[in-house]
Design brief:
This protein is an alpha+beta fold. Helices cover 45% and strands 18% of the residues. It has one domain: Trafficking protein particle complex subunit 3 (Muramoyl-pentapeptide Carboxypeptidase, domain 2), CATH 3.30.1380.20.
């Protein structure tokens, strides 16, 4: 499998480009991209279901999405998200939100909703994602 690497600055510039053309609609597009990426990570991790979240964390680190991640029930704590950066006064980790949602859906075998409730881009110390059942099991 081949991979493409982008710098954090390039990620931010691409996000700004999309926002300038699509406004906030691009957030949904980034989120859906993340769900596609998360599905592949989940498939790999499911091969060793006893270590599912550890494998997901290692893959996310190896692929450069995060520096650290902790799955803790309905909360996921992230430091060093590639999508977090300059002060934006709003959460910016839309792809990572989609990745996390898909990873957790595949593990729990149910539909979930994921919201970024804290983000480094918004001035928080870390990025925190909250997962809830979507009611569409």
């Amino acid at each position: 499998m081949r991979f493409v690497k982008l710098s954090q600055r390039e990620f931010q510039e691409i996000r700004r480009l999309y926002e300038s053309v699509m406004s906030q609609a691009c957030c949904g597009l980034f989120y859906r991209e993340g769900m596609i990426l998360g599905e592949e990570i989940a498939k790999i991790a499911q091969q060793e279901s006893d270590n599912y979240f550890d494998i997901c964390a290692k893959l996310l680190r190896a692929r450069g999405w995060i520096e650290e991640i902790k799955f803790d029930g309905d909360l996921v704590y992230v430091s060093g998200s590639i999508e977090a950066g300059e002060s934006e006064d709003k959460p910016t980790c839309h792809r990572l939100r989609g990745i996390i949602q898909k990873i957790c859906e595949q593990h729990d075998h149910k539909r979930l909703h994921c919201e970024e409730i804290e983000c480094i881009s918004a001035g928080d110390k870390q990025c925190v994602f909250k997962l809830e059942g979507s009611g569409g099991d």
